[in-house]
Design goal:
This protein is an alpha/beta fold. It has eleven helices and 13 strands. A hairpin with a 2-residue loop joins strand 9 and strand 10.
């Protein structure tokens, strides 16, 4: 199902860009942009738009008459498939952050594929925010405080982040006793991760090592390179075995940041809820969720 055509059909049904925006959880400006993109692809103007009124052009009305029944049939078929399919099947494209995907998605995929052997899984790991609709992504796992508008969004879990360092570093540089004392220490963060917004404090500064890789920050902290703000899902094992220790435990990263599942507002494959159910079950006893 072409999402721009489906949006066009919903705008006509609702009678306004704002109505279509409410259905798709988009801003009216984004709806206008998507309709303009469809018009550019079709090479014809589909809607007359004024501040008070919206109506289809003759070409738009003719196009709507042809595609609206098709969109309705596709939605009915998809809903029926979701309700009746005993086993999700077909392609499923997933995007996730590099470290999280490596640690908390990849290990559980064999069991998912054993359960749903007809799913053709594709996983892309990237710390960039890939555009789901333009990138052909069915499901994106994102760690953020503000999931983008216009998508189906489900908060899978909180993302607790703590300050930590290796015992080797703290022995050499001393353990900071106050938040202000962090200014005398080497901080480690990937590009764009500073300032650190903590509960009750904001830490400005520059990373002692410039890198775009969050995994590099973790390895630098383990090697005694400084103090890092890391997600518990990333360092729980190192905290348990003593390779890292918490610093200033009264402070944590903002509780607004969570682990989100994002997908298209309509037409997501049946394998999407199946995968999310599988992952949340696998994560249920993970120490970083406690």
């Amino acid at each position: 199902m072409d999402p721009d055509i489906a949006l066009f059909v919903d705008v006509i049904r609702e009678g306004s860009l704002a109505g279509g925006a409410r259905v798709w959880l988009l801003s009216p400006a984004m709806v206008s942009k998507r309709i303009a993109r469809l018009e550019a692809r079709m090479g014809v103007r589909l809607l007359h738009r004024t501040t008070r009124r919206l109506s289809p052009t003759p070409a738009g009305a003719a196009f709507h008459a042809e595609v609206a029944p098709l969109i309705a049939s596709l939605r009915t078929a998809q809903a029926r498939m979701v309700q009746t399919a005993g086993s999700p099947a077909g392609p499923l494209s997933v995007s996730a952050p590099t470290s999280f995907g490596r640690l908390w998605i990849a290990p559980f995929m064999p069991a998912f594929l054993d359960r749903f052997p007809d799913v053709r899984l594709k996983i892309e790991l990237s710390d960039d925010f890939v555009d789901l609709l333009d990138g052909g992504i069915d499901l994106a796992i994102r760690i953020t405080a503000t999931p983008p508008p216009g998508l189906g969004a489900f908060r899978l879990a909180d993302n607790r982040r703590i300050l930590c360092a290796s015992p080797t570093y703290l022995t050499a540089a001393s353990t900071p006793e106050t938040i202000a004392a962090l200014r005398q220490h080497r901080l480690l963060a990937a590009k764009g991760q500073l300032p650190w917004r903590l509960t009750g404090a904001t830490i400005n500064g520059e990373s002692a090592v410039e890198t775009h890789s969050s995994e590099m920050v973790r390895e630098l902290a383990l090697a005694g390179g400084g103090i890092a703000l890391r997600s518990l899902w990333d360092v729980a094992d190192a905290l348990t075995d003593g390779r890292l220790v918490r610093v200033l435990p009264a402070y944590e990263g903002s509780v607004a940041v969570g682990i989100w599942a994002l997908h298209a507002p309509v037409g997501a494959p049946a394998a999407v809820p199946a995968l999310l159910d599988h992952l949340t079950r696998q994560w249920r006893d993970a120490t970083w969720l406690t």
